[in-house]
Amino acid sequence: MPANTVRIEKLVFGGYGLGRDSAGVVLIPGVAEGELVEFANDGTKGGTRVGRVAKIVEESPLRRAAPCAYAEECGGCDWLHLLYGEQARCKKEIFLDCATRIGKFGHPSGIEIFTANEFGYRMRAQIKIDRQNKRAGFFRRKTNGVVRIDECPLLVDGINGVLARLNSGMVDAFPDRVQNIRVLAGQSVASSPAIAGLTSASTEINVSGIKFIADGGSFFQSNRFLLEKLGRWAQGRLGGGYCMDLYGGIGFFSLMLADDFDGIALVECLPAQIKAAERNFQINGKLRIKAILADVESGAWIGAECGKRLGELTKRSAPDCVIIDPPRPGLAKSVRNWLISAAPPAILYVSCNPPTFARDAGALIRGGYKLADWSLFDLYPNTHHIESAAIFYRR
């Protein structure tokens, strides 16, 4: 076998293919399982060699021509070269591998993955502005340079319309300091900052009869086809008197599961998100949900009852369930320890990162919980990213 040639054994987290040669493991992006590839060295990642494809010697039948004119330049999608069915299969295998290898726990046999249309699904984006070259788009792969994008196949029509208008001469309308525009599409397109004559400051999103008013810069689940499936997935399997919704944002899970609990306390550290959550609770008539401004990571309250700790909530009323939907780094050790100490009968853990979910799930299981059910939600087709939801019951 020629130098710098490897057979790709499998795809691993991060979107890479894993191969081995006489020097050991090498991670290579842009490949498919089973392919024989020639590669050039491209540095290291976490102490492991990274390569870049020089030539596909033996091509997988699961490879396809990327259905996007910007695929070679734009850094937004790393799995466009794979047939969609293969993407879903690989995501399941990667998720289960993380659970076993990182979490080191036994788990229910098999796992369901919910999929939908692989294109036209994304309703939230961050548009990059390059004023010097008068273009809007997304970062060029592995750089901070901006690729002009007039139409992305993953985006909903409304956001593609914003891109097209920006690239037709509107980029000059922004001050020099604006380099990033957060965009969210609902009944209209909202953005932060709002663009006069093109976007509004907020938009309305309807999911399964629940109305959400969200600012353009708000976090909201991105896949319009799977919003209801994700939000209602745990319905009927959780319930009781009191629920805590940590990292609650503008109230997505609190509202989608509101009828399963007598009361819910949403906890969030961003004042704008708290304000939006309170507005959403009111317009949906869910007055048994309250929003608390607090830093989940430090446990410190930063609102009207500043100085108290997150544990104060459980002293007044022990939760029957805790919902956690943390950012990519997963749960801080302090939060894992607090959950195990508070010992709610049920936990719903929604994750966007398999390795940190596996780490946290392993800690919960060793702390007295049983993993009762889990599913995957392919919120980000044509990328390696995957969302999961899991229910833990106290043993």
Short description:
With 395 residues, the protein is an alpha/beta fold. It has helices at 84-103, 157-166, 227-232, 252-256, 271-283, 311-316, 333-342, 354-366; strands at residues 5-12, 16-21, 24-29, 36-45, 48-58, 112-114, 124-130, 135-139, 146-148, 180-185, 189-192, 202-207, 210-215, 240-246, 261-268, 289-293, 321-324, 346-351, 369-377, 387-394.
Description:
The radius of gyration is 22 Å and the shape is globular. The protein starts with a strand and ends with a strand. With 395 residues, it is α/β, with parallel strands linked by helices. It has eight helices and 20 strands. Helices cover 21% and strands 32% of the residues. It folds into three domains: 5-63, Beta Barrel (OB fold (Dihydrolipoamide Acetyltransferase, E2P)), CATH 2.40.50.140; 88-117 and 223-394, 3-Layer(aba) Sandwich (Rossmann fold); 124-207, no CATH class. The model is unreliable at 301-308 (pLDDT under 50). The protein has an eight-stranded mixed sheet, with helices on both faces. The chain has a five-stranded mixed β-barrel with strand order 1-2-3-5-4. Helix 1 (84-103) runs parallel beside helix 8 (354-366).
